Amino acid sequence: MNYDIIVIGSGPGGYVAAIRAAQLGFKVAVVERAELGGICLNWGCIPTKALLKSASVFQYLKHAADYGIVAGESTADFPAIIKRSRDVADQMSKGIQFLLKKNKVEHIQGFGVVKPGKKVEVTDESGAKTEYSASHIILATGSRSRELPNLKQDGKKIIGYREAMTLPVQPKSMVVVGSGAIGSEFAYFYQSIGTSVTLIEVLPNIVPVEDEEVSKALERSFKKSGMKVPTGVSVESVDTAGTGCKVTVKTKKGDEIIECDVVLSAVGIATNLEGIGLEAVGITTDRGKVTVDDYYKTSVDGYYAIGDIVKGPALAHVASHEGIICVERIAGKHVEPLDYGNIPGCTYTHPEIASVGMTEKAAREAGYEILVGKFPFTASGKATASGTRDGFIKVIFDAKYGEWLGAHMIGENVTEMIAEVVVARKLETTGKEIIEAVHPHPTMSEAVMEAVAQAYGECIHL
User: Fold this and answer.
1) Active-site amino acid positions
2) Are 142 and 11 in contact (CB under 8 A)?
3) Is residue 433 classed exposed, middle or buried when 0-12, 13-18 and 19+ CB atoms within 10 A define those classes?
4) What is the percentage of the chain residues whose pLDDT exceeds 90?
5) Which of 12, 328, 348, 442 could form a disulfide with 381 if both were Cys (CB 3.0 to 4.6 A apart)?
């Protein structure tokens, strides 16, 4: 029952930390109360992308004539779409099980609670408790859908992202509250397969963390698809007494009522810190997050925390890197703290959004004199040939030193293109070097080079 490292939680932070620790020669166990892979793999990142792929295929079929293809009338088989998504999640969860076995990481099924003296008590499904000890304990318990007092989820009429992935019947109408990545992705999915969607955002712009030009472009795309996108609007209450829902919203003109079948609450996440023993051990928290140092050590020696439960972007790729840094530091390796200013964010709507670094507004507010380059996909040969001309690449440089401050993309497949910018910023690459690096033609990715060239007054194709 003794280990070098015990990880509580098997999401993209937990299982990655466990496998890296095993690679470094540690005896490792992972405690997981539900499916291996955590929320991201089973109820988040992966199954939602399966849903979105189905929506994308359906849209291609509906517009087959645009490509010179004659196809019969297509309909969305909602139960089959949901089943495919769940099958994808199950397959990936089995993949994590294989990886843990391959790396000789023990999987302990149950709910883990940390105890003083570097111990973990695990309660299994039958209620039996077993105590384990380790030299190092890593908390990676993740998060769940956040609930607002006036938007309590009942799992049927007012739902969170879990229920949105497994509804038994496709709703005719849906109100989505919150236009972050989760809300916008589900809004796009349901609108694309025939549900009438209203996407409500309390702030002035949807996807509010993105550059304003990107936000406006996505809003136009959503409205073009028939989606209603009221912004600067707050949800006051939801009446679920009848057959559907009556959503009361406060607008500049006064209260209005929107009727729908289902309300999806996508107003953020809440960390899973309750009942895991933090108080008994003496681990400090601040505003729902565990306080850690640059290498994820908590206030108590031998206990660490990574992922959504610590300060920073609640993203799978962030949690994975935090886990690797944490265990490599435990192993005595030389590691650098994670650069939270160079974290890419992706939203898998259509068009997709990808960004890293400062927005134009943030750069100006920080006092930078900036160079801004923008290249629309309407000027891209590959985008035109593909029939995917919506969107643009926008880049921001410091005019004085040439530092690449940020990049903001909206368009087809841009989530696969943002890594170039992340690597370039990591290597402190200049705009001139990007212009001089040969980008293949015809590709969507050459728009990055064109946008940089436009910032420096050297763009050929605009």
Assistant:
1) 441
2) yes
3) middle
4) 97
5) 442
